[in-house]
Amino acid sequence: MRFDRELSLPLDLPAFRCDNRRMETIVLASSSPRRKEILRSLSVPFEVVHPDIDESTCDHLEPGHRVVALAEQKAIAGIALLARTPAMKMAREAAGLGTSPPPRLLLASDTLVALRRGKAWRTIGKPADRDEARAMLALLAGRTHTVFTGLCLAEIGTGSRDTVCATTAVRFAAMSAIEIERYLDCEEWRGAAGAYRLQGRGSCFIEQVRGSWSCVVGLPIRELYGMLKGAGYDFGEAGRISAHPLVPASDGSSTQAP
Description:
Elements: E1 2-3, E2 26-29, H1 33-41, E3 46-49, H2 63-82, H3 85-94, E4 105-117, E5 120-124, H4 130-140, E6 144-155, E7 161-172, H5 177-185, E8 206-210, H6 213-217, H7 221-230, E9 246-248, E10 254-256
Parallel strand pairs: 1-8, 2-3, 2-4
Antiparallel strand pairs: 4-5, 4-6, 6-7, 7-8, 9-10
Helix pairs in contact: 4-5
């Protein structure tokens, strides 16, 4: 398996922290274990909320726009959950966080697998059962697909949002029926877009990755770093990096000022 840009799997990631000071805590609006693992590997402290949205409302959008729109919806829903002060206060106290200041930033993400068919995209989500996972793997085998991950970083106090979309091309090897069944037996397909996991046994069938492996896992690290830096995130260094203000765009979202 060849990695064209990033040369290691998420086993020993360098932390963002530059000294022994604790970095700023953020809120992660996701229940994904993989996203939690990446943040822990980077030594980014986080609290978790679990927003519930109707993802079908974005089915008509192209994959890149779709993952960004869904990430924004998750961020908005996450901030709404945080606004329920009594419930969130009790949850923070139960987690031993009652005396710490509430986080300033909330991060949401969405990942989608898609195959290009002519000028159109065929999107592939998470399989509902083994039969659907089998069909997905048979479709991906021997082909190159694209993984789209959208990120939304929101300022909880103001609701201002910054978004980005990362893409990675993944080349699957041909898979025999026996190989597909053997992979299904390990059950990595459960809850995984495209019915495989790059960081697990699914890597046995990946011939090439063009782009960021962390985009495939669900949290593109380079893009995340740029967003945190632009928002003035405290990396535990001597003083916070000055933030570029988030400028509201015409559609209600935000971009970083130059």
